[in-house]
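question for whoever is on the cluster today: can someone run the full assembly for these? four chains, 288 residues total. i dont have access anymore since they changed the login thing
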Amino acid sequence: MIQNASFDIQDFLPYLLALSAEETSLGFQRLYKDKYGMLRTEWRLLFHLGRYGDMTAKDVCDRARLHKTKVSRAVTALEAKQFIKRTEVPSDRRHALLGLTRHGLKAYEDLSQAAQSYDARLMQEFSPEEQKTLKDYLKRVARL
Amino acid sequence: MIQNASFDIQDFLPYLLALSAEETSLGFQRLYKDKYGMLRTEWRLLFHLGRYGDMTAKDVCDRARLHKTKVSRAVTALEAKQFIKRTEVPSDRRHALLGLTRHGLKAYEDLSQAAQSYDARLMQEFSPEEQKTLKDYLKRVARL
DNA sequence: TCTTGTTAGTTACATTTTCAACTAATACCA
DNA sequence: TGGTATTAGTTGAAAATGTAACTAACAAGA
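^ ran it for u. tokens below:
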């Protein structure tokens, strides 16, 4: 059925990454979406605060590679859901420090655990060496 | 600055894939978006028709793993831009065969070439063996 | 041939994302 | 001190996506 052998889209890295990302994100989405009513950006924000501690929205933008409007809306949403709180910084009232509430911490711990299991499930088809290789390569591609 | 060492989001496969996909798709997006005014789904449709020959929208859904509404809209858009034409199948008037116009074929050839160069550029940091390994692993993750 | 079920594709609507413009606070510098 | 430039974050409108309901054509059995 192959017509033009010039270049196969199935070997195009951005396409392979897009398909893989779609394939793997759907399963995890159910966890944070159905259970906590979160959006992808909200989950990322939660994880960054949980893992790396309090930081400003700007820090989240840089670390999580998210646009400021996305972060701004995620902050509003997670604040409304009582997962995070913001504390104004008196020395520079332009930004506010974001941190998890007790409730947010619980959600983070639960989702973090779930992510770990889900990751293990996804990776079970790969040997430990392969797992390390795959993730190392992806970090290089993502410039992490 | 690390607070909770339980599980690092940077090692979570869906997250790594999402970042890598975003990182690599942006560069290519400029090509099909700015030059041809195409959307991601439209580019995928074009590539599938160019590479694998004429097929119905349903075939595209299955092969390209796209939802039928996305494909339906991409078909309408690419038809309006004169990149593809549809031919009704008399034996079953429910579906129509999609194929590239001369204009669409030129766009496909151009973009296919651009994709190849872009892919090479992305992969140049990897040795030939590493390139093969990375893509093989991704195909396994994506269940291709 | 009716009627029930399935399939291909479209349309409508709600949700998300993106983009650009905006406000408010601070920094820099003549 | 005053004026301009930056920076953090918000808001609104437009574009894109996802979901579900819909139409039209065909299939298959009573």
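summary bc i know u wont read the tokens: Chain B touches chain A through 56 residues (CB under 8 Å). The CA atoms of residues 52 and 63 of chain B lie 10 Å apart.
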